[in-house]
Amino acid sequence: MALLSQTVLAQSFDAVRQQRTAPGQDLSLVGFVILSLPTYAGPDKRRETALPVLHYQWAYGWFAGVSNGIGINFSSNAQFRYGLRVTADFGRKESRADALRDIGDIDAKAEGGAFFNLALSEEWQATSSLRYGAGTGGSGLVANVGLTFATALTPQWRLGASVGLSAVNADYMQTVFGINASQAARTGYAAYTPGSGLRDARASVSLTYGIDPRSAFTAVTEVNRLLGDAADSPLARRRDGALAALVYTYAI
Question: What is the pLDDT of residues 162-185, one digit of tens each?
């Protein structure tokens, strides 16, 4: 039975990652992930946390999970997958870092979106997604494109890698990286009004060890870099960030 071999991270939603299964076969994965990651986009501090891994994939197209959201794949062709889904932007608490003090919280929001994945070969896949609904006014738009690679090194070891690029609209950029007049008065930051454009670029590498046909451990490391107006924001104390994760999954 297929097991996760690529990044399994809650709150990312950059792409829909579905596992290969036999025709007509459902798949359920449970487990946990231990994460070390920045406290927000562009900080100079980190935090550690543990989260559950839940991934359900039904043969008739529906899926649900902490890294994919809830959605449906309309394609029965394994070479390309496309569909609709609902995800979430989990917002941001100003208590996460000193740099955010008095800037105000960003409330969590539901997002609606679409995705399209194209298998270029057995090992390479191009991914893309759109998500709408984040931000203070609920009109933030995030577009992601990426390229993933996965190959078996031995019957037990599997190597994965990915690169990705994200672009956002002005509403999203203002919510996450901008500073309005009221925030400037409270915090001492200069007012900052970023425009739409690229938000970040990222690359990751993963290594999976299959304990048995049902269970596996995956170690993941990812580096990312803020771009454009996001990188120039006064809230972005660092342009570069890194993430590390250890994931355990069990196929039911």
Answer: 999 999 999 999 999 999 999 999
